[in-house]
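From the pipeline queue, job 12 of 40. The input is one protein chain; the requested action is below.

Action: predict structure.
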Amino acid sequence: MIKFSAKKRLLASTGEFTLSMDISIPEGEIVSFFGASGTGKTTALRMLAGLADPDTGYIQVNNEIWLDTALRKNLPVNRRPVGFVFQNYALFPNMTVRENIRFAQPEKDGKTVQRLLEIFGLNVLRERKPSQLSGGQQQRVALARALARKPKILLLDEPLSALDMHTRTAIQDEILLVNREWGVTTILVSHDLPEIFRLCCRVYSFNERTVEDKGPPASLFDSRLSGKVQFVGEVLASVPEDILRILTIAIGNTAVKVAVPATDGDYAPGDKVLIASKAFNPIIRKL
């Protein structure tokens, strides 16, 4: 269990605000920090890792206090068992895949390195340098390196946002496998709702003041909709046509056209949308 209470003054595009959070994160779960850009999600990860200090705060992981500003206690970064993966891969260009992974281990453990190479499909690439790898392969190395020291907490700051859908899905499977096999508590910052629905047990919603525990991902939308069949998609195009607006929406690797009333709000390319329908007479075909 992670008990995380903090206040920190931050500057967003709308001005200064104080991020205030008081949450508990169950051990072994994959959870999401969700919210608009600039609401403090990455800062919260950095505070957990010890890379940023709150103005006031308290962090306890299981029975160990990592931070207590009232007692002037602050566990150094190198003593916090945390793995951190950013959007950029931050690999050592002069090291091979195996060397990058082994570098993260305080005590060398060849069996763990080998298992990580297998989980992330890197075994045949183990002697290659980062410049010889694709973006997806580099991100797999970054994930494996973060896990090499067997952290208690894995922090993922939009690590898959630059990857194509097929690669994202494959790495999501690998993250789930690691979680099942090692039980490491994982905190994911993501704006991608399908990714959150697929990976996470719980969502913490950030705004420019507070952080709320929203429970399971579906609870973000349950109060808004009565539909029984739901799909999360992204608007690709929005074209007005008489009294309607024709939306082209990407759902996974499929694009669909949906007609909505012209008065039903504004939709722009890039907007995330939820499509819901009653679960009667759907067309279902096994692929």
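Job complete. The chain has a mean pLDDT of 87.
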